[in-house]
Amino acid sequence: MADMFDLTTRPNADLFSSRNDPNDPRLGEIVAREPADYPGADIVILGCPQDEGVRRNNGRTGAEHGPAAIRQQFYKLTPFNIKKRVVDIGDIRIQGTLEDTHDIHFQIVCQLLRDGKRVIVLGGGNDISYPDGCAMAEVFGPEWWIGINIDSHLDVRIADQRNSGTPYRQLLEEGRLLPQYFYEVAFQSHYCSPIYYDYIRQLGVHRISLELLRSRSEADLELKENIKQNFIGHSRSLNTFFGFDMDAVRSADAPGTSAPSPLGLRNGEFIQLVKYAASLANTKIIEFSEMNPKYDIDNRTAKLVAIAMHRFCSGVA
Prior knowledge:
Layout: H1 2-6, E1 8-9, H2 27-30, E2 43-48, H3 52-56, H4 66-74, E3 86-92, H5 98-114, E4 118-123, H6 129-140, E5 145-150, H7 167-173, E6 182-187, H8 194-203, E7 206-209, H9 210-214, H10 221-230, E8 239-245, H11 267-279, E9 283-289, H12 300-315
Parallel strand pairs: 2-3, 2-4, 4-9, 5-6, 5-8, 6-7, 8-9
Antiparallel strand pairs: 1-3
Helix pairs in contact: 4-12, 5-6, 6-7, 11-12
């Protein structure tokens, strides 16, 4: 445990809100943040404040400040219906290269998973899906986890250097994520290369476009039934990872992202998918990436992620 805390910095105490009212407690007064609190935690919050992968992918930078902006809003919320013990272990110590930062990220998340924690990861760029996915494969084995990428993009780019558009290609080609256990959800065809789409189609990756998601009465219904159909009698024993790139939410609801779009998930649909992630007994990691406070309006996007975290913590099976 000491090694893990040596690799992270404690969260800024100024982000932990309090109204100093015993009749109106806030998460800033309740969520623990000291190493001594870690053993009793059910859910652990971990930040990765970097956007080097976004820069490499020619996106607009600023997501490195996402974890702090999200925490500031999350700790203003009340503990209503949150029964699980939540600990915030702070931020990964950012290294000189993205690759070195990913190595540290991988080590920490492996330890969290081995300790039986559920993990909320706050980005940063969407490249964090690579070390998170590597940790899932390392701890549980490639054949024992489902990866779900909720994003307007596919993130299977070919590139000379890893970046925010390459994480799932890396995981697939390294055999850490099996194609038949991978779901691309809420992607928008006008943002997806037909060559990359054909790549995942030929591999047998499950594909649920934004249009298909919208064709159902509830946002999570298509994904829920797809998983149930493909893993009959087996899904309950599989560990699950959800990667939420905030680019998947339309800019009217989430203006503060690395790659905004006028189309996308509505805020209620986004929350519905988060609640589905919480309802699965074996969801091990839920990840929120590319929240960019530099372009946010009235903290709208940071507040949306904060509410999503609250729904996850209060809805965990």
